């Protein structure tokens, strides 16, 4: 087991270990060709990695990918781009000169300050007798101990806070860059190998042949868990929508199937975009950065709704446009509570059941949009967290119009 370790990562099997060695060899070769101190080269490398030019098999490669992302972000914040190049010799000379100057200044000033403090202490204690001196020194030691404890506690708190905000900023920035590059892949033909006509098997007896829209073929080839794309004009909501056999995986994984606290937008596991449900439900985190569905609660304003009445949700097979109908707050209820639970409304078996659900949502609505639905209409529900109450949810329901 001890031998299956590469770049600080341990691997359980020999196959994983060999894959990690291949990743490390690939990384070493990249580092030979790229000067990590040159902003332009690092940013160019990151851009190239985003296109999928380098494929890694293990966590060793993922660590390198994160390293390049952080380095590229830092250089970009300093104003560098792919064409930037700095004189490293001049930079290093500046660092040496500055360090030497600082040390000289410290060596000149420190003894005087120390002597001054020592003299002040000795003079002030001369006025007291031996017992009083002892008490004063003991009190000074207690104060110094309390000061050190306070400094340590504050330091720990500061490290935790900076760590939290650093991690939050890292994932937020990475998510933004990742989804910007995904948006650029819409309609592109960057990935070859797509075969038009995808066969979906629902049962042994039934076979449905569907064609992925040309706009989403490249993205679908990158991750076949992609089920569609959600976009609201003039907002930051412009993301792929995923779907798996559970409603947990994409709560903390991004499109590239990497851990990401922003998660992804995902369609409820029980929804079916082919045998269409009455209501499709899309979930996403309410991130403080505004990412994912972080700006959805702006629909609490009727004026905002009037300015953004339409929601575009394309499945990978067909386009779709929806008009906002209901906006309301709800929460996750206990299973034994007999109450309307919007997240359980996927299908209406009858017109009466459909109308009953519409009445429940209309009663919860924050305002009247003037939009109504009839039995047979197709609905779309967007759901995110609402922090006004425990397990709160903010919900926007729209009716398909195109």
Describe this structure in a few short sentences.
The protein has helices spanning 14-33, 39-50, 59-77, 88-125, 130-185, 217-222, 302-307, 351-364, and strands at residues 5-6, 9-10, 198-201, 207-210, 226-231, 238-242, 265-267, 279-283, 310-315, 321-331, 379-386, 392-400. The protein is of the alpha+beta class and 402 residues long.
Question: Could you describe the 3D structure shown?
Answer:
- The chain has 402 residues and is of the alpha+beta class.
- Helix content is 43%, strand content 16%.
- Among the domains are: 5-77, no CATH class; 223-400, Sortase, Chain: A (Beta Barrel).
Supply database-style keywords.
402 residues; alpha+beta; Sortase, Chain: A; eight-stranded mixed beta barrel; two-stranded antiparallel sheet; 12 strands; 43% helix; extended
